[in-house]
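Minutes, methods subgroup
Present: GH (chair), OT, SY

1. OT presented the first of two proteins processed in the latest run. Sequence and structure tokens recorded below as shown on screen.
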Amino acid sequence: MTGVLRLYPRWWRRRYGDEMRALLDAAPARRGDRRDLVRGALDAWIHPPEPSHLPAVAALLGGGIWTMVAARVASQPVRPEWPGYLIEVVPFTLVAAIFVLIAVCGIALRAADAHGRSTGLAIVAAIVGYGAWIVAMAGTVGGGTDPGVLWATQSIAMVATVGVGLLVRSSDERLGSIVVLAAGAMLLPWAGAWLVFGSCWTAIGLIILVARSIWFDERRRLS
């Protein structure tokens, strides 16, 4: 049973780990204890004692890389034809998509209290959509993915992201609206969509960093 404690975040293990191990060693295991511990681990990840910097950093990295790629594509003297020179930027968009996925999951957790199961479904949809998109891009780098597959997996990832944005809007209208704008732009056959996507995620990272800084300032003022 104590092995389940490895599922808990590090801050929780430092604060409560020894006490919980002693409790588990002293009491006989009951049916359902393992399930309750797993549920507690999930709750500890969703409710950290202080806002995590990970979503902000991931959004800044993903948005920054995507914006640079979009600017490079936009600066070319001819329209991009697949695969053409676009094949050269796919490794960068693949890395950016990984960072954006981390940011999407972190942002979705902001809506966990208000929407419960819907948030979990949105996170699963995002992981599946981005995972398929990332795999498709990896296949493109290896020369084996059809552009239709790329578009389909990208669309699934963006629809899932729109869902996350709509959930977040109930608690943070500005942040949720920018998430919806970023993903919605990528669903349109528009040349400027990539630049909007990258710029929005950069803005999202800055918004989260500012909110985190305000939280810490407020905490220091009250302490």
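2. SY then presented the second protein from the same run.
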Amino acid sequence: MKSYVIAEIATTWEMDRSRMLALMYAVKDAGCKAVKTQWTSDPARMALRRRMPNDAYNYLKWPAEWHPQFADEARRLNMDYLCTVYLSEDLSAIAPYVARFKIASLEAGDGVLRRAHAAYKQPVLISTGVMEHEEVLALRRECLADGLMDATLLLTSSCYPCGHEEVNLNAIRSGCYGGFSDHTHDLTMGGAAVVAMGRPGVIEVHVRDASTRVDNPDFLHSLLPQELTQYVREIQLKERALGSATRVVTDGEKPLRFHRVVRP
């Protein structure tokens, strides 16, 4: 599979370490290449920066010593471990363990945070929700100025879940994006559709287990493991169907070459 599919477990494991580990096994079986979560050391400060209620992000704080445990398990499963953080000082807690960083849409415009990521000289994924096209173009320039030489912008909508009218997949043709962060809860509309447009790259999709509470902020746009398996399968089928960039005689057609009528 050409696409780099990230299973975003986000908050759906509800800070239950055993559930996180079980979901890691499930996303590996589905065919994902990376597993990702989110973390903050200071939920109140994160909420203040986003102009949210003081307790809005308490669910994102969990023991920092779990990072190496999750990274080790991901490595054992031959997957990458990723984690989004929102405060510059939190980068040191995850940098030794993640294969690449991820900056969320609401922090994409934070130059201080971008430059803090750049100091580690690791690949960075950046979501571009709630941004106009001109702001995305400016972000590309700012990433280079910040020293983020290996930054991949992800097309996304910050609607959770994202309706079909909000996806705006045609924007992937602009050349700004190296992937898609999917919030549609649709097995064929998101990642598979992007690949069918000839844009394989990074595909991020949210995942949960059957125990995730319905009031969990990531519940509505997250796939169950069996749905994730089908999601990845749809991507694989689209990749196979894309074939070559030029017309070739396929193996199935070769027996018919003898019968082809050619005359001036």
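Chair's summary of item 2: The radius of gyration is 20 Å.
Next meeting: continue with the remaining queue.
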